[in-house]
Fold Tetratricopeptide repeat protein.
Amino acid sequence: MKRYLLVLGLLGCLAGRSIAASMATATDSMAVQKLLKQARMLQAAYQESEALGKYEEALRQDSRCYEALWQAALLSVRIGARYTDETRRGAYFISARQYADRALVVQPTGGEANYVVALSLVNRATLLTARSRLHAYKLMKPYAFMAVARCPEWADAWQLLGRWHYRVDHYNVLERVFSKLFLGGMPSEAGSRKAIDALRRAHQLDSTRIQFCYDLARVYRNQRQRRNARLILEKAVQLTPTTSDELEVSRRCRAMLLQDRRRQKRRPASFQH
């Protein structure tokens, strides 16, 4: 009888601990969800540093929170890109890559995780040697392709893929030779036509993003599709910038459009296209 009561007591103790642990887990989950909600609201209000802080706080509660990981990587890149000081830029880009790698561990085929890995690679490459930059473009290819495969309705993923296509397709002679001799060859499948298709898709998915307009117009222009470039720029200058970054891009779009209009006036009608 005593043994029976002892077993019942032990089972009751274990059950109590299990319930307490479940309640603690539920409480932690609620706290994480609250932090994620706060972070999203801050992002929507363009308070990116504060949003990053909330995502990092969520990760202290749950180190494998996928949304917090990839969003922290994304914000680290965006914030770092605004600094002119290379040390601070580099610190943010390194942090972004760390968050991105952790997100990839949680969801190896996640579109967001693959996107932020590619994004952190290409941004950190701006601070590295020419060889490292070329290596980064080769490394980022599978991540950029996986991002659009898994998130085909995400405009940012298409923009990044379009930029990759255009940059690789426009390697200069030295970059091509170096890639063949020291990096095992050029990244395959890149093309300017594919760049246009990807950037056009990004613009179709979100026509309110002035950066997408600018990227597409530049590629059109460089491919001598000036009429298409002009049409996109005319749409771009109608958009209202909401951040200092967008204001700068808007200024560039206006300058490109003004330059194109001046050029058009100087050319005979038979040469305009």
About this structure: DSSP finds twelve helices and no strands in the chain.
